[in-house]
Amino acid sequence: MSAKHERDEPAASSDDEGPMPMPMPAPPAKKKARKLPFEAAYLENLPSAAMYERSFMHRATVSHVLVAPETQFVITASADGHVKFWKKMAKGIEFVKHYKAHLKEVHGLAASADGLRLCSTSADRSIKFYDVLAFDMVNMLSVAYTPAECCWASAKGAIEPKVVVADQNSPALRIYTAESAANEPMHTISKLHAAPVTAVAYNPVANCVISADQKGIIEYWDADTYKFPAKERGVATFKFKGETDLFELAKCKTHATAIDVSTDGKSFVVSAKDKQIRVFRFATGKMRRKYDESLSVFEDAQADDALHLDALDFGRRAAVERELLGSDVVSNCVFDESGHFLLYATLAGIKVLNIETNKVVKVLGKVESSDRFLRLSLFQGKPKVNTQFEKHLKAASGLKHEAEVMSDAANERDTIDPTLFCTSFKRNRFFLFSSREPEEDEGEEGSAGTGRDVFNEKPTLEESQVATESSAAKVLGETAVMHTTMGDITLKLFGKECPKAVENFCTHARNGYYDNLIFHRVIKNFMVQTGDPLGDGTGGESIWGGEFEDEFHRSLRHDRPFTLSMANAGPGTNGSQFFITTVPTPWLDNKHTVFGRVEHGKDTVSSLENARVDKSDKPLKDIKIINIDIF
Fold it and tell me: Composition bias, kind Basic and acidic residues: at what positions (predicted)?
């Protein structure tokens, strides 16, 4: 007879039946977060303010801005072909010269490596050269093609500096010298690209030019031989482009819009039409980093509390971004002087990115929701300022004594002032981000502007009208908050329909005319009335003295409770008194001017309406207006 074998408990021997579980893998070693040594020191030499400090005007949309290295001049260009020179001072910039350089929009603007020369190209088929220190135009060429992007391709101190000019409609690249009077180029590169070149940049360390075309092809070529850099030079370690990532843009069916090279020449960054930022190592051609700044990324980020924007604000920014995608407007990236940080404009502001740790360290201009920043140019280091010139400017302002001017100049001489200059989509201004936040009252007596937006150009008729309307809106106000001893009442004002009544009310409120006045007449199921300095319904006058006329509007009726209306003693007798209805009162239409309605605080009005009153409808216990705030 066979017996069934049963196990009462698991055996621990190696003779156990069945497979053994797979041993647990060793936990992966945690990667240490990469750190950049001396990061804080690098960040001190970058702008840090959340808001732009100043902005200056052109007459048309500002299309280009750049800082000339060494000489520390700032050059801006606009869609009407005008070019302006500005000098970097110890604090901010000063205007130097204005050129009506071209008849049409500027396509390219470039400064030489030593900052001594400037080149501009335009849709009017002209190329112009400038001496930066003398801020003088030294040469101009008329060409038979439409020049596009341009770039200086000579090292500092070159006897005959060369400039590369792209053709908007052909793959050709033409090389000119600033001093040549001939309209013909000294050399033409016609077979390097198969499509028009959209971006070009010079690497002074390697003495090479990087160019990219509409098909997404990126090429290197020697600035002297106009061919691929020779192997013995050792600047490029690859032999075939298949060994590199230089076909990345072509694979993604996009093209470069701008290229910037780091100061040490080891890296370059490509801004592309697909809103991807790609960082390459120059020697190997390998892609080092890739950042997606497309609209879809920001739409996904709305779910993140840290990156979340107000829904209305994000909707407006997204609409601008879609419009930007359909335009030919160019946005670029810039390296800082250390080569460790990358600055570029996005929908949410200007990002400062540490490419070593792969982290965004700050965002400039995130709160500037009305501006979509585009082109950037960065100034770092100590401003080289002509102290006599600066003292003259400060003394001429008449705001400081000579001793103060001398003291200021000594203090500012060794001060660094990192400043980021940037353009904005469809704006005729360029903006300065520094380490200083804008002050509340920056307008100075005798200055050309008020606040941080300097009006250095005469405004157009349209701008004058907008300014007039906005100033009128500021006088009239759109909302009033009436603080009473029973609570707050928020009123929406109809300044467009009843400008005189609203102006009268707002001015009285701002001047404190209504402060501590009582509600002298309260009738249940009708209205509450105030605004009489005498407190008996017989006093008060308008801001103009006496009375003013009625303003009846067909869309503003006493057809609902909580309507704000002017009290009067007959036609055209409006003064300072007003009332708030508590029921519909259609019999008052065309007799009293309706100039507002209660938005919040209806319970306060209802409580006020139910106050105990005497035979003359005056509350037994005084109910007062503490004050009225206008917004």
Answer: 1-10
Catalytic annotation on 64?
A: no
Query: Does residue 529 have an active-site annotation?
Result: yes
Print the domain residue range for 264.
81-379
The answer as to whether 430 is a domain residue is: no
- Spell out where 426-501 has E strands: 429-433, 479-484, 487-493
| Set 64, 521, 558, 597: catalytic member | 521
Would residue 260 count as lying in a domain? yes
From CA 37, how far away is CA 356, in angstroms rounded?
10
* pLDDT averaged over 10-residue windows placed end to end, the chain, 631 residues: 45 48 63 80 93 94 94 95 95 93 96 94 96 91 96 90 96 91 88 96 96 96 93 87 94 96 96 95 95 90 72 86 90 94 94 93 90 95 70 55 49 77 96 88 44 82 61 75 95 94 94 95 95 93 92 92 95 95 94 96 95 94 95 89
478 and 374 in a common domain: no
Q: Which of 168, 289, 588, 627 is catalytic?
A: 588
Distance from the Cα of residue 556 to its chain's centroid: 39
Q: 493-523: b or e for each residue (b if 16 or more CB lie within 10 Å)?
A: bbbebbebbbbbbbbbbbeebbeebbbbbbe
* End residue of a domain, out of 355, 379, 403: 379
Q: Does residue 368 belong to any structural domain of this protein? A: yes
Beta sheet of 333-335, edge-to-edge order: 333-335, 341-346, 349-354, 359-364
521 is catalytic: yes
Q: Is 597 a catalytic residue?
A: no
Query: Domains in the chain: how many in total?
Result: 2
Residue at a domain's end among 322, 357, 379:
379
Same domain, 90 and 199: yes
Say whether 592 is catalytic: yes
